[in-house]
Amino acid sequence: MDNVSPTTPLISVVIPLYNEGLHVKELLSDLKTALQHIGCRFEVVLVDDGSPDDTWAKIKDAAQTLRNVRAVRLSRNFGKELALCAGLERAQGNAVVVMDGDGQHPPSLLPLLADKWMTSGADIVEAVKRSRGRESLASKFGALTFYVILNKLSGFELKGASDFKLIDRRVVDTWLAMRERNVFFRGMTAWMGFRTIQIPFEVGPRRAGKSGWSYLRRAKLALIGITTFSSFPLRLVTFAGTIFFLFAVGWEFKRFI
Q1: What angle do CA 75, 81, 86 make, to 5 degrees?
Q2: Which domains are delineated in the chain?
Q3: pLDDT for 178-192, tens place per residue?
Q4: Which of 57-61, 159-163, 176-180 has the highest mean pLDDT?
Q5: Can you give the pTM of this predicted structure?
Q6: How many Cβ atoms are within 10 Å of 231's Cβ, its own excluded?
């Protein structure tokens, strides 16, 4: 898939996949077209997040026929954030692009991400959503509410942020050294404080099927994000514990008088 000089930078593309066997071939075709315009060496790390369909079979076939494709399979469905961690642990590039494989993160943007990284000196090149694409009103409202709360509690402005970004090797190494397992990837990359530039993009339509993000999973990720990046929940628990303790002391005192 590449025939450029071995001295050029290596770019890894990490893609977690779940129940996306129908379009793995199309995804790799789009990636090949985009990556050939970068002028760098590249590898594609496909992570099967315990898919019950034929996603793993399609990934394994691709890895056997395309030398730049690396296949990773998780023992069960751990969720996108941990699947992403597994891919980052195996990526070898001087820079790593993280993206979804369902078509909503357009591979055609990869040359621009790589160019900005090589010319700007930025450590992170983040693709920011102009809009949220085709989502239900409830999903859009839930996302807006989450980001408003997170911004108020933590001071991080993540509205429009996505997991679609290029990160330099030193960012990847710093991320891996933290060994974080309660993962909120887009929040952690902002928290680390590396120099970041943003480029806008339009969220594309899904290639097929429905999103695997249930309301329960979204709520769980929101809880991780809020508890990870804000001390407010801890202060709230401490305050509630103090009130309960004082109430208990008062109740016991009342019994003895």
Answers
A1: 50
A2: 10-139+157-213 (3.90.550.10)
A3: 876 666 777 778 778
A4: 57-61
A5: 0.74
A6: 11
